[in-house]
Design goal:
alpha/beta; eight-stranded parallel beta sheet; 15 strands
Length: 532
């Protein structure tokens, strides 16, 4: 892999911010530039292949386990790397954006892992991107303590009680418009990964852990291979031993579900397992097959993890991970604890049932979105794991999953309800408004919503309109009502921009692959961020 000196520097196309110089040092930018030089063209090729694959599937090509990699799946000898320090026990993981308040709460929560999320839970304003890097640096240096506006002090607990930090960079499909290399925006994945790795990898090793990552939105083994090569070059450039990096891959696209073993194989010396990214998985399913009538989904609330196709996906994930000595991490519990005792108990009961199913199925841990859910998740997994750090010994050889099992959506198909339509519209609008304001995770009706749930909401509306399960006029009527409610509840909300974003991403003839690039471009124009 190339390690030659750069011929073009990375340029920062934004005005300096408070303490930005601590992150955007010449050496750090040079490091990001080396990654962009080595992998930028290959990333573009893989994005083109994503589009070609989408067109093939839309044209009726079957989705199946690849015969080209049958030998990898059949070979019983290979395993992923053993668990790294701080990742041995992962029974409770908490997720959230890398802001200062969240960092203290997450690290102190009692969870084993904090997934610091630059992707679905972060609106990628330049301040959020650089500020998030500063938060991680400060957390590792133990200078994250602060006093809130109410005078309450927030301080880190003793180091041995803190959650292990795992960073989720943005997906391969996104770029960072505020950094330019060789006249083009730098891939956002390489920005988030590169800045954190440059500043914090050695610090994390010295603290007894290491540079650990969650990898989002992968669609195939080639995208995993690209990440593995990024890790190899990054370790080489900074003189860090090969294999120090660990990465957990979110299986949150339907195509990746057919290549789980291949993805583990590509990353095996850097792998720390797979995660069932169930909300994005549903989004991917609709985005990939939404033009077909046999993939019509009912209201989001009715698509539970007990649906046959979701059971097939999660059981295959556990079997695949444990076959290869890897951790299998369960999905998000998005409930937000309520001050209403009845609502609070109802929310905890839902979380408990969800985590009991995961623990009984063989998962080694699971995600929560709020510190208040850590105790119930821990209690459930404690009851199954006891003193063991995982249940990798449960190889789930009883599980047999076919392509038809993964695609058996029609078994839960049903018409949408008016309440389901309204909920999807309200969630999309509320999230779009918060995202445009710079907030990537927002509590709506008792759930912590992020980009994944907003994506499900808008693609379901698109799918229902396309197949005439609802008419456009009904959607527009509900849209106007919910926009009025949004403006009344949040006077700051950019109602007209939110309307346009919804119409373009939920009511257009062709379904945009993601709403985030459109929203990002609108945010840049709206704020007209000054450039140096």
């Amino acid at each position: 892999m190339p390690t030659t000196a750069l011929t073009h520097r990375v340029r920062v196309l934004a005005a300096p911010g408070d303490r930005h110089a601590e992150i955007l040092t010449p050496a750090a930018l040079d490091f990001v530039g080396k990654l962009a030089a080595a992998f930028g063209a290959r990333r573009l090729d893989l994005m083109k292949e994503r589009r070609r694959q989408a067109l093939r599937l839309a044209g009726g090509a079957p989705l199946d386990f690849s015969p080209a990699t049958a030998a990898v799946r059949a070979d019983p000898s290979w395993r992923v790397a053993p668990p790294a320090p701080g990742l041995t026990d992962r029974r409770v993981e908490i997720t959230g954006p890398p802001d200062r308040r969240m960092a203290v709460h997450a690290l102190n929560s009692g969870a084993h892992v904090w997934m610091a999320d630059f992707e679905d839970a972060t609106a990628p304003t330049w301040e959020n991107v650089v500020g998030g890097q500063l938060v991680l640096l400060d957390a590792i240096e133990r200078r994250i303590d602060f006093t809130g506006e109410d005078g309450k002090e927030y301080r880190l607990a003793d180091r041995d009680r803190l959650a292990t930090i795992v960073v989720r960079p943005r997906g391969w499909h996104l770029v960072e418009e505020h950094l330019e290399f060789d006249g083009a925006p730098v891939p956002a994945s390489l920005v988030d990964f590169g800045l954190y790795f440059f500043h914090c990898a050695r610090r994390q090793i010295d603290a007894g852990h290491g540079p650990y990552f969650y990898l989002p939105k992968l669609e195939n083994r080639y995208e995993a291979r690209l990440w593995n090569d990024v890790f190899l070059l990054a370790q080489e450039l900074l003189g860090i031993p090969r294999g120090t990096v660990r990465a957990t891959v979110l299986i949150e696209t339907i195509t990746a579900a057919f290549e789980m073993e291949e993805i583990l194989h590509e990353l095996r010396e850097h792998s720390s397992g797979l995660n069932a990214g169930r909300w994005d998985y549903l989004f991917s399913l609709i985005k990939t097959f939404g033009h077909r009538t046999d993939f019509l989904l009912p209201d989001r609330a009715k698509v539970t993890m007990t649906a046959p196709f979701m059971r097939a996906y999660t059981e295959l994930l556990v079997r695949t991970c444990h076959k290869r000595g890897a951790h299998a991490i369960g999905g998000m519990a998005a409930q937000v604890p309520s001050k209403d005792p009845v609502a609070h108990e109802a929310a905890l009961a839902k979380v408990r049932l969800d985590k009991e199913r995961e623990a009984e199925d063989g998962f080694d841990g699971s995600w929560v979105a709020h510190p208040g859910l850590v105790p119930v998740c821990r209690e459930v997994f404690d009851g199954v794991l006891g003193d063991l750090p995982d249940q990798i010994h449960r190889t789930r050889d009883d599980v047999e999953v076919t392509p038809a099992d993964l695609l058996s959506v029609r078994r839960i198909s049903g018409p949408p309800t008016r309440e389901g339509m309204r909920t999807n519209i309200a969630v999309a609008l509320g999230y779009f408004a918060a995202w445009m304001r710079g907030q990537g995770a927002v509590a709506l009706d008792g759930l912590m919503e992020d980009a994944a749930t907003a994506e499900i909401a808008r693609v379901q509306i698109w799918q229902w309109v396309r197949h005439r399960l609802i008419d456009r006029e009904t959607v527009v009527g509900l849209l106007e009502e919910e926009l009025d409610a949004l403006g009344a509840a949040y006077p700051w909300a950019p109602v007209e921009e939110v309307r346009t974003l919804f119409e373009r991403n939920a009511l257009s003839g062709e379904l945009p692959l993601f709403f985030t690039p459109d929203a990002y471009a609108r945010h840049l124009v709206r704020h007209a961020e000054p450039r140096s």
